[in-house]
Amino acid sequence: MAGSMALASSGYLKQLCQAHFMGESRNFIDLQSYCRQHTVTDEKLEQVVKQLAQNPINKITTEKIKALLGNKQQPPQMPAWTHTTAMAKSQLQELSALIN
Q: Superkingdom of this entry's organism (predicted)?
């Protein structure tokens, strides 16, 4: 890990590795791969690590970091327009025209 390009390019990753992953290079590499695959920024990673560090009883692990990173709030998805919804909309417009 000493010659890692990621560590050379990011001071935060180097600090994170030294603080929480000394002797656990496989876990740290796994975390780096996850972050690269899911386009996790250093800022987001730092935010999650700070959140985990607020509980001094628990050890910060790759699994815990990935769990928090994976628990992103997704905006609610609008239901897809189907034939039924299109028909219902058409019928509502017809009824509205009759009433008005």
A: Bacteria
